[in-house]
Design goal:
The chain is mainly alpha-helical and about 160 residues long. Helices cover about 50% and strands about 5% of the residues. Helix 1 crosses helix 2 and helix 2 packs across helix 3.
């Protein structure tokens, strides 16, 4: 399964906002720097998340972005659907007519089961879960440049 870059960037940005929740609005430039996301791309991702009601933004010198929903209520499946659209593992799962072999193949049910398992994991993993995992993974690691001991999610 291919995870679109905008989903990866969106999850990283949401984890950063969750980590800094309660500190006031977070500037996009700070998120981009900490999470290694190109700022122009991050702006588009944050715009989409704001339109979907996941984040909020405030303009001005003290402005920035914040979560509009509790991080425990934002699932990776939600982010995937908002930023990546439907991801079909095999074309015949979406449209059986695309494959001339689907009637004799026998693989459709296996791939459907794999897809359902992936969706289950994505829908049951929240941004709050990822923050907790990042903290667990960083126990004993050196602090990040901003002083926090939190992981930057890898691509």
């Amino acid at each position: 399964m291919h995870i679109p870059m905008q989903v990866d960037y969106g999850v990283r940005a949401l984890v950063d906002l969750a980590i800094h929740d309660g500190e006031g609005p977070v500037r996009a430039s700070d998120i981009a720097r900490r999470r290694h996301i190109p700022e122009p791309y991050l702006a588009r991702v944050l715009h989409t998340l704001r339109k979907r009601g996941v984040t909020g933004s405030q303009r001005g010198p003290l402005g920035g972005h914040s979560l509009a929903i509790d991080p425990s209520q934002i699932s990776m499946g939600m982010v995937m659907s908002y930023l990546g659209g439907p991801q079909i593992l095999v074309g015949c799962l979406d449209d059986q007519g695309k494959c001339v072999q689907s009637a004799e193949c026998g693989q459709r049910s296996v791939w459907r089961e794999v897809e359902e398992a992936i969706q289950k994991v994505l829908n049951s993993t929240s941004i709050a879960d990822l923050v907790a995992l990042a903290r667990d993974e960083n126990d004993g690691n050196e602090a990040q440049p901003d002083g926090r001991k939190l992981a930057v999610m890898a691509n």
